[in-house]
Amino acid sequence: MNALEIRNLVKRFGGLTATNDLSFDLAQGESLGLIGPNGAGKTTVFSQIMGELKQTSGTITFMGQEISNLSTPDRIGLGISRTYQVPRPFSDLSVRENIRVGLMPDSLRAMIFGTIDRKREDEIAASVGFAAADLDRPASELAMGDLRKLEFARTLATGAKVLLLDEVFAGLTSGEIGMIAELIQDLRQRGFTFLMVSHDLPAMEPLIDRAIAIERGTLLANGSFRDVLANAEVRASYLGEA
Ligand SMILES: Nc1ncnc2c1ncn2[C@@H]1O[C@H](COP(=O)(O)OP(=O)(O)OP(=O)(O)O)[C@@H](O)[C@H]1O
Q: Where does the ABC transporter domain lie (predicted)?
């Protein structure tokens, strides 16, 4: 079964067509790269899959169930979650408390009255590489590499097995990129499914099984990373070659 099936997805902002009759599949356990120039519509695709933006038309199916009209919390509840290009932690909360919010995503009641599972919080923090001493640090004090780890931790805390990663290497040092890449490889081995957007093609290459390229919301190419990058239209639009 496919984890995701996107069919004839269209998103218009007034006169601008940001997603243009886009169709693609993401198999369970697969890692798919989504590339395209600035403004191609990559983030808009993520936002529609998560229900943060409503598609103009078309359908999104997750594990055989159409989710096109579900709320974002309902989609997260089914097992799909995303990270953001610009990390969005609760800055005043500690690393541990941010993970706790991920564990209780859509219920204020659970946040206030629910049982706190410190062991689970510890496990998630450790699984993304936080040391025990980091857990009480406020998110506002974290450097970019740690903020990216926290994005992963919050996403994993939702219990999602299908993760949409938006520019997870942006703003990182080469050491931090290596650390995040290792984390993704570890999660792939554990059976997670990925759809990832990155402008850092060398960092992304070893992490994906296949790639798709879009321009102005339209699918240009779908295949192995090498074939997609060799595609003439992709080279013209993305790599700026005549
Ligand atoms: N809420 C919005 N209202 C109007 N236009 C929007 C909105 N969100 C995105 N757009 C437009 O839709 C197009 C696609 O934007 P999107 O952010 O999805 O591209 P992207 O491929 O993620 O770009 P980047 O690589 O720069 O992050 C752009 O022309 C953008 O200006």
A: 4-241
